[in-house]
Each structure stands twice: as structure tokens, then as C-alpha cells.
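Researcher: Here's a chain I'd like modeled. Treat it as a single chain, no partners, no ligands.
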Amino acid sequence: MITVDDILREKRHSRIITVRMNETVATAALIMKRENISSVVVKDVCRTEGNTVVGVFSERDVTRALVDFGANAVAMPVASFIKRTLTSCALSDSIGTVLRLMNEHEVRHLPVLAEHGLVGVISATDLIRHYLHEEEADVPSGHAAAGAGVVLSALR
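Model: Modeled as a single isolated chain. C-alpha cells:
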């Protein structure tokens, strides 16, 4: 069984990018652009000196903020746009568990917590990359593209 821990070990980016809840949408968007990532983990500002994970702010949240509030959104705090209930996973969770969580909560990024501390972030893209890597390892050369087509059609 492949676990979240296995996927995190494969990831290229080992840094976990976080912002505080009071950071603006503009600041979070600039950080995501600069780091070439699609989400940031949001941490609490006052409780436990900013070490509590309270949510994930993603490109999708930027879009929703701009559609709902126009140009005013860029000055609003990211806390205004994150889901109020944190959905996370553990290092020992299977890929199937992660996919079910993402589907059930309609999210594409999950913070990975161990002993209540943030140890990583897993995304739908990470799962796709893992699957494609496994397909390339299992399929004779030249047939990997066919496997990719199967994955993409399954995601539609």
C-alpha cells in the first residue's frame, strides 16, 4: 500500500510554504507565484503563537475572492476565504484515503499532520505524478503516453 509518506518522499519541493491568517490575498498570491506553487498553508496568528494549521489557501480561493469582491479582495485577509473546517491527512494514510478526503471535501490540497504538527502538503497533482511515474516504470518504453491518456480520461 502506497502511503502519504511515500508520496512526500518523492516530492521535489521539500519546503512547506505557509502564511499567517491575517496576510492579504495579494501577499499569498505573490508568494504562490514566486514559489511556483498552487496553494499555501494558513497558520493561526494569535493562538499558539502562529503554529496551528487552520487551512489551505489556493489559486481557486484567489479566483473566488476576486469574483466575489473584485479589486477589494486583494487587501482582504486569507482567513476570509479558507474553509472553516480543516481537512488534513496523516503520513500513514493510503492514497485511496487521501483521494476520498479530497473528493468528499472538494479540495485539491491537504496538509499532512503528524503529532499535530505540519510535516507536508499533498496535492492532487502529487498523486497524478506518482501514478504516472509508476505507469512509466511498469510500461515498456513508448507506451507511457497511452497510460497517461487513461489517467486523464479517468479524471474527466
